[in-house]
Amino acid sequence: MKETAFQLALEGLEGLTRxxxxxxASEDWPSSLDRLQAEVAAVSRLSAVASPSAVAGRSQLSPxxxxxxxxxxxxxxxxxxxxxxxxxQNRMELASLxxxxxxAVSALQxxxxxxx
Length: 116
Fold this sequence. Notes:
About 80% of the residues lie in helices and about 0% in strands.
């Protein structure tokens, strides 16, 4: 494996991860699909560079590179947990809005019947 190619691919993915983590923290979700597609491409580049040495595995990496990969994986775990929490909160909010809509529709129907 070429250390420099691997390092460049890893740096690209780390940069995207930092940027996207910041955007997600500020709840800038509209462009999340584009962000994820960019990360998928960065992961693919990293995998392509790493694949020739996959048999040797992590032992071929410098300790610094191993630590960076560990930090990146931990970052993804944290982001996934935050995304899952956000999804649950959105589902609860949507259920609450559905209930309020149903109450409003019922009230309007009662009001409409009362006027006829």
